[in-house]
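Re: Re: token formats

Sure, here are both.
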Amino acid sequence: MISFFLGVYRRLRAILADPVRDFQIAMLMLVLLVAVGTLGYILLEQMPIIDAFYMTIITVSTVGFGEIHPLSNRGRVFTSVLIILGLTIVTTAVSSAASVVLGPQLWLSIQERKMEETLRTVEKHYVVCGYGRMGRQIIRDLRARKASFVVIEMNEDIREELLEENIPYIIGDGTQDDILLDAGIERAVGLVSALNSDADNVMTVLSAREINPKIFIVARASTNTAESKLRRAGADRVVSPYQIGGHRLALALLRPAVHDFLNLIFNVSDDVDDMEVGQIYIQGESSLAGMTIAHANLRQSHHVSILAIQKINGEFTMNPHTQHVIQTGETLIVIGPPEAIYRIEEKWNPEGPDADDAAS
């Protein structure tokens, strides 16, 4: 119940913070005021509808044309109230119109409208909870693969940044069901929970798994305890940045050439795009099923090489033999230029992480 009222409060605050909506509301109130004024003069002064409407217009606009005919005391009180309300509403409408025309809010409001339409129609997308340093890198990788996504972030200060970057977003708490539903979680194929708190990540995973049992979930963990909890909560994969970072530091110290090679593959810089690792899930109708690796000849036809094969039972075969027959249900781990990887994944993995889920 509390989350419902908080959701209503957030929506009302977002509406009132939008000058375009302020102007629309003021114009609606003005129309209602004219309707009420017309009806009031009809009932209180027995005016014909045209006279009542005309009297209301000159009263609300305060043009000073005078009364159509002498008013009773209650008619004068009613007219005084109309003048006060009319001045207030017209002033608000003019102020909102000036804010829309003269301020940057016009562009932002237009972008928000487009974004809201995107949120209503997006499907088979990824939900990214948290737009910190890790979330930004996730978005860069998703965009490189032309994947659809929605960001959930609590910090309202980055709203303008998200709009400028044309990133569909929801401002709110990713642990709450209503926020996840606003992000289209029931239509999403994947979710990344990259919040700063392990407890928040656990709650997000629990909520997402309950709403969409089929979604593929990846979560961030800071400790081994949190990793086990996240897996029990329903995360398909758990990543510990501190363990990975520590291992890479040790690798840089002990095997610098290996570290440099991994940097080439798993680059985090926008201006480095020499190499990428991808995967191909072999479905029943795949043209690769039943071929040997030599016959598939992915190196010549698609400029990628097979590093490993994940078998149906989850085990990996590294550097597989060229006479290995590719089986339905296996996953090929390939390496090559980023554009070649994106093309080959789009060709054989059109449904995105559904294939990952099946392979796992």
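Second one below.
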Amino acid sequence: MSPLTDQEFAGFRKLLYEVAGIDLSDAKKLLVSGRLAKRLRERGLASYGEYLRLLTSGRQPEETQIAIDLLTTNETYFFREPKHFDYLRDKVLPQHRPGTAFRVWSAACSTGQEPYSIAMLLADSLGDAAWEVTASDLSTRVLERARGGLYPMAQAEHIPVPYLKAYCLKGIGSQTGNLLIERRLRNRIRFLQVNLNQTLPQVGEFDVIFLRNVMIYFDMETKQQVVRRLLAQLKRGGHLFIGHSESLNGVSGDLQAIAPAIYRKP
């Protein structure tokens, strides 16, 4: 297989930007090469250029989805940025009016650790009261893994012990070394494929939207468009959580910054 050329890399960058709004830096050339190499071998292709022509021909949209999946999977873990979960539990939930379902959207859920973390917290805090979690991602591959709710036991280190006992099952036999999210919790989450760079599906309004650690891959124009779309589905008084390494400076003036990486819609 011939190495990825600068011209081919530019083609993949263009494709990823057009489909997903993700703006890869020059430093990501090695990542693109590494993540696509196995797929080229599986397809029996001798060069990245052949694969790029296949993707841009429009004849195999399912292959384009596979390539996007390979290039957009990001590392995540349970209760990442824990102060966000503390704020949700201690500040946001006490303000919720009883009698209405509390709705949260994990808008870039990756392999599911974020929405399951949210669901554990809501189950513990709200009990039998009505609550809903919607989880979405661009990648069909990570959504399939998320729906299964099966993770290496090593990831349990970030789950609070009471939640681990209440909502997780320890694998035995062939599943030794894994943990499984309990079925009743898995059933409370609706997983959807959503491209944030396109018109959003009609999923209703939410009290809280998590949009964390995805905007770092967008340019300013794409950030503005994505945030505008999501804010249209955030209730007045609702909260938007973004990653601590991200900023909404210049992205939206319609939000009130109330804590690090936490915003409120007036």
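Strands lie at 102-106, 131-137, 150-152, 168-170, 178-181, 189-193, 206-211, 234-242, 256-259, 262-264. The first strand starts at residue 102 and ends at 106.
- S.
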